[in-house]
Specification:
Helices cover 81% and strands 0% of the residues. It is mostly helical. It starts with a helix and ends in a 12-residue tail after the last helix.
């Protein structure tokens, strides 16, 4: 926090991300309220994330060859416009029934396109704000802010939906982007020489992918993160079903469930940020992934509100710790000239596979129900975690020379 640019970034992000989580919660509730369809919840998750799978490489290409500061301003501005469009359509009554739900899905897809550019550019932009020495702490603090908003946003959304309706959640999200845009405009970013774009976006992605896959710590942790993203993080898609059908609650119940996971996520990120060293990340990643899997298995069979809250807290803590540790390990090992491209690979293998998982989750839940689906998904995460712990993690500790660039990989 000694860096002025990072102070501005964090302040703007906190306000904006609270609005983003409000909108996400309200969108999920609105889609399920209009249709009562678990399958459409899966389609919603698919639409909001699938652009990351195909477009994040282009975002990484832009981040390595063009001004990252201006790029983040552009993505935040477009997100603001889309939030106001969604608010206007909802408040005027244009979104009704199945057709209205599909409009929400389409706007979620457009926001996904924006995020596909925003994530790799913004992740690479962190190093320009704080430098390499403070980068691990900046990553963890950024994750803390993201998940702090995940606590406050859904809770506010739960009450706002009950009192005002979904449309005002979307409108407040639009207003929240003003804070982050103003903060970005107030920054003074030193000029950096960007390498001329002498290759195609496809070749750019291939270069980043080749580096990531040739490095054992990066490759193994990315594969485990993909398993978490594909199966483990899909519990959020089913939150409206748990809130309304299993726990017999309402929009406030949904907000509290999502906030409980957010509280755990904040503490997980802050716990990671407080580390004075970054050795032993391979063991930490394996332990948190295993903990998350066990939490998902317990949550899948829970029918008491208090148990759901406790377990979601643990899941949020473990999943966020794993994400922050993986991000730190990668950013410590990647050279500056490949940073955006490797972070695009990170975004593709993390966020890019989420839509596939959401689509699978919605289809499977339609046939066997949400609880049984989460049981199967939690089992897959546990299997991947155990493989990592007993094969990959031990190999990382025993292989000489893997800590050349970062002691964090052990």
């Amino acid at each position: 926090m000694q860096h002025r640019n990072f102070q501005l970034f964090i302040a703007g992000q906190l306000i904006s991300l609270i609005g983003t989580w409000m909108q996400t919660t309200a969108q999920l509730w609105l889609v399920y309220k209009l249709t009562g369809s678990a399958a459409l919840l899966g389609i919603f998750g698919f639409a909001s994330q699938v652009p990351m799978l195909f477009l994040s490489s282009l975002g990484g290409y832009i981040g390595d060859h063009y001004n990252r500061h201006r790029g983040v301003i552009a993505t935040q501005t477009v997100s603001m416009v889309l939030a106001f469009v969604l608010a206007a359509l909802t408040l005027t009554g244009a979104i009704r029934g199945w057709r209205g739900a599909w409009v929400v899905v389409v706007i979620a897809f457009l926001l996904g396109v924006v995020n596909a550019f925003d994530v790799p550019i913004r992740q690479a932009f962190l190093v320009q704000m704080v430098g390499k020495e403070d980068l691990p702490n900046a990553i963890a603090l950024n994750s803390s802010i993201f998940n702090g908003a995940r606590v406050v946003g859904p809770a506010i959304a739960g009450f706002a939906i009950a009192w005002l309706g979904e449309g005002w959640c979307f409108f407040l999200n639009g207003l929240s982007f003003v804070a982050v845009i103003v903060a970005l405009l107030m920054m003074k970013i030193p000029k950096t020489e960007m390498r001329p774009a002498d290759e195609s976006p496809l070749k750019s992605l291939v270069q980043g992918f080749q580096f990531a896959m040739s490095d054992l710590p990066i490759r193994s942790t990315l594969l485990l993160l993909s398993v978490l993203s594909l199966f483990g993080l899909q519990y959020s898609v089913f939150m409206p079903i748990y809130a309304q059908d299993i726990l017999k609650g309402n929009a406030r119940t949904l907000g509290l469930l999502m906030s409980s996971a957010g509280v755990g996520a904040v503490l997980g990120a802050l716990h990671f940020a407080a580390r004075t060293h970054y050795r032993g990340l391979a063991r930490w990643i394996g332990a948190t992934s295993t903990t998350c899997a066990i939490g998902l298995l317990i949550f899948s069979g829970a029918k008491a509100f208090w148990l759901c809250v406790v377990v979601l807290f643990v899941v949020g803590f473990a999943a966020t710790s794993q994400m922050a540790a993986t991000n730190t390990l990668i950013q410590n090992r990647v050279p500056d000239e490949l940073r955006s491209r490797v972070m695009a690979v990170y975004a593709t293998m993390f966020m890019g596979v989420q839509p596939i998982g959401a689509l699978i989750a919605g289809g499977v839940a339609k046939r066997i129900g949400a609880p049984h689906t989460l049981t199967a998904f939690g089992s897959m995460v546990l299997l991947g975690s155990l493989v990592f712990v007993f094969r990959v993690g031990m190999r990382l500790q025993q292989t000489p020379g893997e800590t050349t660039k970062a002691a964090a990989s052990d």
